[in-house]
Design brief:
Oligomer: single chain
Protein name: YycH protein
Shape: globular
Structural class: alpha+beta
Number of strands: 25
Organism: Lactobacillus apis
Keywords: Membrane, Transmembrane, Transmembrane helix
Length: 439
Amino acid sequence: MKSKFKIGDLLLSLGTVIVFVLSIVLWTFIMTNDQYFSRIDQTNSVTQHTHNQRGQAFNNLYVPTSSYGFENGQPYRLYDAKKNLPLEFAKELKSVKYWGIKTISSDQKSYEKMLNNSVYLQLTFPNEISVNLFTKRKLTNKDKKFRRAFVSASNDSLYLGNDKTTTIYRINLANADFSLLREYADNIKGKKPVKFVRTKDSYETFYTKQENWRVYSYLTTKQTDSYFVSRLLGTTNVTSRASKKDWTTYSLNYYTKLRVPSAASERNDLLYTRYEKQKEMTVNDRLLNSIELVHKLGLSEQDLRYFDSSNEITCYSNYIEGMPVFMGQHDPQISTKLTQDTVEVAFNNLDLQIPIPFDGQTRTLEPTDEVVQQLVNNGLKKAEIQRVIVAFRVEKDSSHDNLVNLIPVYFVKAYDQWKSVEEWKQTDIASLARQEAKK
C-alpha cells in the first residue's frame, strides 16, 4: 500500500512538472508569435482612434502587407514573424505630419528604375488606396491613389508610387523617424528573391526560385445566424422566409435583407443587401464607407486587412504570416459593393481563432514565371493577367471538426476574377473571354 502511495505521488509530481513546462512553451509561442503582437497593436489602435475614422482605418485595416529590400542589387521579399515591417511602418507613421505633395515623374522607365533602386525600402499595399486616406487628412483636392511607399535614407520625405499610371509622388514629412524600420530591414532573416514584373494592372512580385512555404493550422469558430440578424437588421420587425432549398432570407423590410445558408449546406457565405440612394463617392469616400460596413458585421478584425478593389467593390482578407487567406474556393473574408442604388456586403462567418503550433509541414511552389507559362499554355493571355500572388486556401482537417489547414498556393486574378492556378486550368478561358467581350 505504501508503495502505491509513493508511485501515485511520483506520477502526480511528474504530471505537475509536465503541465508547468507545457504552459511555459505555449506562453513563449504566443508571446513570440507575430499574430499576437498584431492583435495587441490593432486592439490598441481601435481604442485610440475611435474619434478619428481615418486614423482607425489606416492603423487597423489599411496597412501595407508586404515589404521589399535589396542585397547586392537583388530585390528580396522581407518577412520576419518577430519584426513585422509593415506594422512597424504603420506605428512610425502615427505621429508623422504631412505637408505638400508633388508629382516627381510619370513615365514607365523612371518608375521601373525606382522599383529596382536598392537605396529604397519598399512597403506595398495589396491594391491602391487614396493619398488622403493614408495621410488622414485632405492633402490633395484630386483623389490621387498609390500602392507603394518608398522609404529612403532621409526622414524628411516619403515617395509614393502608383503602379497603374507609373506615377511617383513625393510627400514632405515632419516628426518622422524610420531608423528602427531600416535597422529591422537590414537584419531581417526571412528573405525570398523576387523580381517586379509588369502585368495588366500593376507590377507583381514574381518569385525567381522554387520555394518552400509553411502550412499553418487554425482552430475556427463561427457566429450564429441570429448574431448577424441582430447586428445588421435589429431585433424587431424582422421576418424570415425560405427562398431556396439551401438559403433563408431574413427581411427587415423590402429594402433591407440578409441571406444565410442552411446548416445542411455546410456553407459559410452570407449576403447583406440594403437598397438606398447613394451620393456620388470619391475613392476615399468609398473606402471609408466600406470600413463602416466591415465594423458593423462584428467579425473578428484581428488579422483582417484591405485586400483588393475594383470599380464599386472593396475586399478584405485575413492575413496570416504576411499572406492573404481565401475562404471557400477563392473568396476573401469580406466584399463590400457600393453602387448608387445598393449596398451589398458578402462575407464569410468562419473566423480563424487559435493558431496551432507549426508542425513542420511545407508546400513547394515553383518560380512564378513557370506558373504563368502554364496558364498561357492553357489559353490565358498574359495581357489579361491582373495579379499573381501566393496565398492560402482553407482545407478542413479530418482530425477535428473546427480545425483547418492553410495551404499555400498560387492565386491569379484575370477578367476581374480571383482563382487558384488549378481552377484556372479547369476554366473554359475562351468562353470566359467571349463573355467579357460582350460586356
